[in-house]
């Protein structure tokens, strides 16, 4: 539909993928090297700047592959959540996915010795061996592309506070259009871009922690799955205010959430405010 096409072009413009003539910008050309959604390509490229490439490669692969969480048969949901709890990362689902992938890699490596097979390991934790194997293949392909176009690839630093912040910045660089706020403290998330209310997907690590963050960045929104947002991580309004392109923010529909963010932007330090104006 023409509306969808216009929206896609607008999104590319917000992501700095188009030049003033509507053609791909230099940045857009590099983004197009990756067989990924534009937002994910942007986040992956931003990870070069924020030095969290290793982790973003894993996140990109995990969200591109099918879900690694096996559907729990009726009556076994709590058991599945309990299995997944050991991988939960307090920073959110994107980070939990890194934990899962790293644990899978470790299990696969140790299976050559006396350990159980990767398939059995996945079964023990209600995870999909096929999805994780696919994520490994996708990750290797993305890494190959980065090497081919000579992008800087930082060493893994997963686990440090600095690294968590860097990953959040990289994610926000691409997914600033995928922000939602819990408007009533009970997990009803109103998306910034349109007045749609959504809930966290049942596989979210926040379901395990019983903690409901106020502001989140989400990978995707699914109407078919009970209006749920999937792969969700907490962000701070301050970080959003620092990284959001000003012309995108100004085009957002009026809302209480926008007013809160505007207040944050108004109080940004001069350096950040200047950066906003330049975007």
From TrEMBL:
GO cellular component: spliceosomal complex
Domain Helicase-associated: 7-98
Keywords: ATP-binding, Helicase, Hydrolase, Nucleotide-binding
GO MF assignments: ATP binding; helicase activity; RNA binding
Residue intervals passing through the bilayer: none
Pfam family, any one: HA2_C
Name of the protein: DQX1 helicase
Organism: Campylorhamphus procurvoides
């Amino acid at each position: 539909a023409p509306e969808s096409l216009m929206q896609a072009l607008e999104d590319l413009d917000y992501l700095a993928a188009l030049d003033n003539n509507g053609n791909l910008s230099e940045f857009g050309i590099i983004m197009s090297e990756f067989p990924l959604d534009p937002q994910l390509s942007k986040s992956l490229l931003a990870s070069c700047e924020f030095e969290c490439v290793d982790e973003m490669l894993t996140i990109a692969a995990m969200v591109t592959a099918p879900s690694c969480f096996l559907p729990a048969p009726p009556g076994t949901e709590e058991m599945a959540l309990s299995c997944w709890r050991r991988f939960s990362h307090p920073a959110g689902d994107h980070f939990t996915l890194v934990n899962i992938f790293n644990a899978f890699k470790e299990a696969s490596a140790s299976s050559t010795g006396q350990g159980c097979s990767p398939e059995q390991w996945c079964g023990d934790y209600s995870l999909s061996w096929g999805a994780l194997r696919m994520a490994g293949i996708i990750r290797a392909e993305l890494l190959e592309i980065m090497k081919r176009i000579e992008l800087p690839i930082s060493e893994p630093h997963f686990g440090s506070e600095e690294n968590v912040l860097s990953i959040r910045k990289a994610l926000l660089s691409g997914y600033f259009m995928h922000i939602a706020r819990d408007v009533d403290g009970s997990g009803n998330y109103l998306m910034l871009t349109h007045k749609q209310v959504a809930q966290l997907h049942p596989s979210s690590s926040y379901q395990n922690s019983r903690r409901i963050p106020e502001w989140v960045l989400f990978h995707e929104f699914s109407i078919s799955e009970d209006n749920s947002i999937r792969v969700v991580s907490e962000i701070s309004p301050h970080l959003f205010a620092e990284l959001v392109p000003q012309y995108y923010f100004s085009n957002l529909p009026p809302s209480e959430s926008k007013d809160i963010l505007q207040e944050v932007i108004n109080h940004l330090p001069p350096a950040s405010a200047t950066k906003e104006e330049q975007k």
